[in-house]
Design a protein that fits this description.
It is built from eight helices and 17 strands. With 247 residues, the protein is an alpha/beta fold. The radius of gyration is 21 Å and the shape is elongated. It starts with a strand and ends with a helix.
């Protein structure tokens, strides 16, 4: 049995989520609920769930105000939020599960499936998400990367390039370290395109600050500061040359 707590200031939202859990996740039992930050903090000090469904904006504060009260987070959190582009991008940077209101049963099922498969202490991820949202940053300093056995919180400025590997992405760092991450290159293109990264080829996404030279011969390729050579697609070549002129 998976023990769950729901914290949301809208009673009907709590009722609906409980009904959805009964239908789509019968192994999840709701052991408590609260309508805000203060009630939620009291509840979590008396009983700990395996998973917490936490609303972002409530009348007496935010979900992050609640997390600030807690010394540790020994349970999984699935955030519940209205459509907010900045918040959603922050969730994706931190690789945190979230559900948009009204909650879609398929998304609920997917989030719970991931929880069953990978029960990890995610304190660092919540700190990363909290930092991004509370400071309302336009750019992000760190990103959470999932490998097969760990979640790595890394500095974006240390990423030299990303290379597609079927449904995975290989990350290359200034330290010489490599990580094989369980997401596609397209996922990271969407996240990093406003962080100085540029997709020069179907298989390559680069941090432009590490480009050393553009070699025009042999179809055109880029030489990176770490000595790697990256092909530039024919279609992208005019865009790449223009991008380099503007650096």
């Amino acid at each position: 049995m998976i023990k769950a707590i729901i914290i949301d200031d809208i009673e009907q939202a709590r009722i609906t989520l409980k009904k959805d859990l009964q239908v789509y996740a019968p192994d999840v039992t709701v052991i408590g609920e609260a309508n805000g930050v203060i009630e939620g903090a009291k509840l979590l000090k008396s009983v700990l769930p395996d998973i917490l469904f936490l609303d972002i904006q409530m009348q007496d504060g935010s979900g992050f105000d609640l997390l600030d009260i807690l010394k540790d987070i020994p349970f999984k959190i699935i955030f519940i939020t209205a459509s907010d582009a900045h918040a959603i991008k922050a969730f994706r940077y931190a690789a945190i599960d979230y559900l948009l209101k009204p909650v879609d049963p398929d998304e609920l099922t997917s989030a719970l499936t991931k929880f069953r498969e990978q029960k990890l202490n995610e304190n660092e991820k919540y700190k990363l998400l909290n930092d991004s949202l509370k400071n309302n940053r336009k750019t992000h300093e760190r990103i959470a990367l999932h490998t097969q056995d760990k979640i790595h919180i890394v500095n974006i400025c240390d990423i030299i390039r990303c290379e597609s590997s079927v449904n995975y992405t290989e990350f290359y760092f200034t330290t010489g370290k490599k990580l094989l991450v369980t997401k596609t290159l397209k996922d990271f293109e969407d996240l990093l395109n406003d962080q100085g990264f540029y997709r020069v080829h179907q298989s390559h996404l680069l941090n432009t600050k590490f480009i050393k030279e553009f070699i025009k011969t042999d179809g055109g390729y880029l030489l990176m500061n770490d000595g790697s050579t990256i092909p530039v697609s024919t279609r992208k070549r005019p865009e790449v040359m223009k991008m380099l002129e503007e650096l």
